[in-house]
Design brief:
The strands form 3 sheets. A two-stranded antiparallel ribbon has the order 1-2. The protein has a two-stranded antiparallel ribbon with strand order 3-4. Strands 5-6 form a two-stranded parallel sheet. It is built from 31 helices and 6 strands. About 65% of the residues lie in helices and about 0% in strands. Strand 1 and strand 2 form a beta hairpin. By secondary structure, it is mostly helical. Helix 13 packs parallel to helix 17, helix 21 packs antiparallel against helix 22 and helix 23 runs parallel beside helix 26.
């Protein structure tokens, strides 16, 4: 009975399969079944629904893989940290070797401050701070020339001033034509103008070849008169050809496309601007009353920004006749660019700096017309900034660029380039240039949308860390100034600044933990150096300024900073490092006074006074004691000097009453 029941069930399965194959049209092929040709409705369904579903599933799979990889990296990092702590407690070399990361990847404790800032490690992952250099040229597939070029548009071009002033009615007519112009026409006209320029270049090369051939035929009259006479009798058309036929067709093309190339300029016939022409051009564009005049002005400014570059002025169809014309044009545009752009938008000049910062040009109704001019001005100014070598001119350019920060709202890629260039000047320029640089950086971070503030905060701290490696009598003022700049930038938006500050403080703590664990000269040297101490003082300065209130977002960082400073002071208990210990105790007292947190520095001072080196009999010496604000340690022979011992004891006794 059991066998018969199984046979009946198997027969039912075979019958159901045959019925299904008959309905679907499947036929047996080899070891499987082919469903036959797909119906039109089935293909349509797969095209509309299944294709998108497959793509979505692929994206979901890739995202899940990335998520799992990130979780595995985080788990590995946490495991390394736990094993590192176990190795500290047990003091076993085997546990320390087990806690070491994979070959080829440095641990956070083994990285110097410069390596950490270049790699950009944030909480065990990769920081996006390194993308500032990576996506400058590749974003959106745009070339560098797109930032400073002005696309031509029909109806808004204006004749270049020759000598006599033209009436303002023409400016008003050109401005009215701009309002009725098609916004998409600029790109088409620009492409037509480029094509026309290519055709003209080919025609010019052809004419040159014709002239050379004609000269060869004329020379044939003297070198071989018999052959020349033969050509006259047999093929006179070869000697009497006329090259004006091609010129007539070219003239027809020029007449047809006269409106396209008007104001754009050609490679062979560029407009030459003298000082008188520049004066007329500036006079007509002043105040931003006419868009056509402003367009000509910014096109001339582009030629001035590329003045001296190879074929830089011919690309704009404009040439500058002299350096005087260059100076007057650049000075006028830098001084009046903000007023001109505001006038084109129908807004009066800003009366107060706060009013200028709150201005939103991209929200104005005429922004689409003014946007190419603003982008051209900013791009050309950036190019000019990279070419200048005079510090006064660079400072003036930064000051005028600071006024035009609101016009950077819609140009994210251009903003990144400007910020990168200004940060380089902030880190390597002279003092006056650094002041203008940080003013521009602060204004950009406060006015422009994210992630400008984050990139500015990262860049300013990196420049500070790069300049804080050495301290002497001349550089100490620059380091203190840059410390104030870091504090100012990180106080603009404490919510955005907290993760960055936490990351950099964590890296200082990791270096300290590495020194406590490894106990090697390299590890000690990574902590007892000017860069580490200056970075620690910088974060104390930030917390002094912005962590006074209990509700401050940066308030939770007070405790870890105090612990790092206390650990660094106790790292090497020696009287030779008395200047470093006194320096750390001084900043801990300042942090405690500003935030109200109790920091136990009295044991550090009492330990310093009890060092055996200070209890030995002093040896007479005529050398002056070193300036403790410029050194981190003293030599062994200097510890026996009465002057050095006196400075150490006086410093400790002065700091002890300041301890709250």
């Amino acid at each position: 009975l059991q066998l018969s029941a199984a046979a009946v069930a198997q027969a039912k399965v075979h019958r159901a399969g045959r019925s299904l194959r008959r309905r679907t049209g499947a036929r047996k092929v080899g070891g499987g079944y082919n469903m036959g040709p797909k119906k039109k409705s089935q293909k349509k369904f797969e095209r509309k629904h299944l294709s998108g579903e497959i793509v979505r599933r692929k994206h979901a799979k890739v995202a899940a893989q990335r998520r799992r990889a990130k979780e595995m990296r985080l788990a590995a990092s946490m495991k390394d940290d736990e094993e590192g702590e176990e190795s500290d407690e047990e003091g076993s070399e085997g546990d320390a070797a087990a806690a070491a990361p994979a070959p080829g990847k440095k641990r956070l404790e083994d990285m110097s401050i410069d390596e950490f800032l270049n790699v950009g490690v944030v909480d065990g992952g990769d920081d996006s701070g390194s993308d500032e250099d990576g996506d400058e040229d590749g974003e959106g597939g745009e070339s560098e020339s797109d930032d400073d070029d002005i696309p031509a548009e029909d109806g808004d071009e204006e004749e270049w001033p020759e000598g006599e002033s033209e009436s303002d009615d023409e400016d008003e007519e050109s401005e009215d034509d701009d309002e009725d112009d098609d916004p998409d026409g600029g790109a088409t006209d620009n492409g037509d103008a480029n094509a026309l320029a290519g055709v003209k270049k080919s025609n010019r090369l052809l004419r040159e070849e014709i002239e050379e051939h004609q000269k060869e035929l004329e020379a044939l009259k003297d070198t071989d008169p018999e052959f020349y006479k033969f050509l006259q009798t047999e093929d006179s058309e070869l000697l009497d050809f006329d090259e004006s036929e091609g010129e007539e067709s070219e003239d027809d093309e020029d007449e047809d496309g006269e409106g396209d190339k008007k104001g754009k300029g050609s490679f062979s016939d560029a407009k030459t601007l003298t000082s008188a022409t520049v004066a007329k051009l500036c006079e007509r564009a002043a105040g931003g009353e006419a868009l056509g005049a402003a367009r000509n002005l910014f096109r001339a400014y582009r030629a001035a920004a590329h003045y001296g570059d190879e074929d830089g002025d011919e690309e704009a169809g404009v040439k500058l006749a002299s350096s005087a014309a260059f100076h007057s044009l650049v000075t006028f545009v830098l001084e009046e660019a903000d007023t001109i752009l505001r006038g084109l938008l129908g807004q009066p000049p800003a009366g107060h700096p706060d009013e200028a910062r709150l201005f939103k040009p991209h929200q104005q109704s005429r922004w689409k017309k003014v946007e190419p001019l603003a982008k051209s001005f900013l791009g050309n100014t950036l190019h000019l900034l990279g070419q200048l070598t005079d510090a006064d001119m660079s400072r003036f350019l930064l000051a005028r660029l600071n006024v035009c920060v609101p016009f950077m709202h819609t140009f994210e890629r251009l903003t990144k380039k400007i910020l990168k260039a200004v940060l380089a000047l902030f880190g390597s320029g002279e003092p006056a240039l650094r002041v203008q640089s940080i003013l521009l950086i602060r204004n950009m971070a406060a006015v422009l949308p994210p992630p400008t503030l984050e990139k500015a905060a990262k860049g300013v701290y990196r420049q500070f860390a790069a300049n804080a490696k050495f301290i002497n009598a001349t550089s100490i003022e620059h380091v203190l100034f840059m410390t104030t700049c870091v504090s100012e930038i990180y106080g603009l938006d404490q919510q955005q600044s907290y993760p960055l500050a936490f990351t950099y403080i964590r890296q200082l703590a990791s270096l300290l933990r590495g020194a406590l664990t490894n106990k090697s000269k390299e590890a000690f040297r990574a902590v007892y150096c000017w860069q580490y101490i200056n970075c620690l003082e910088c974060w104390v300065r930030v917390l002094q300024s912005h962590a006074k209130d209990e509700s401050s977002p940066l308030r939770p960082l007070v405790y870890p900073v105090a612990q790092v400073a206390l650990g660094a002071a106790r790292l090497l208990p020696s009287a030779r490092y008395a200047p470093l210990r006194l320096r750390l105790i001084r900043i801990l007292n300042a942090l405690s006074a500003a935030t109200g947190h109790f920091v136990p520095v009295a044991p550090l001072l009492l330990e310093l006074l009890g060092f055996s080196e200070l209890n030995k009999a002093p040896m007479s010496s005529k050398t002056r004691p070193p300036d403790f604000s410029l050194v981190l340690r003293v030599a062994k022979q200097e510890l026996r000097s009465p002057a050095v011992q006196e400075v150490i004891v006086e410093g400790a006794l002065q700091l002890l009453p300041q301890h709250p």
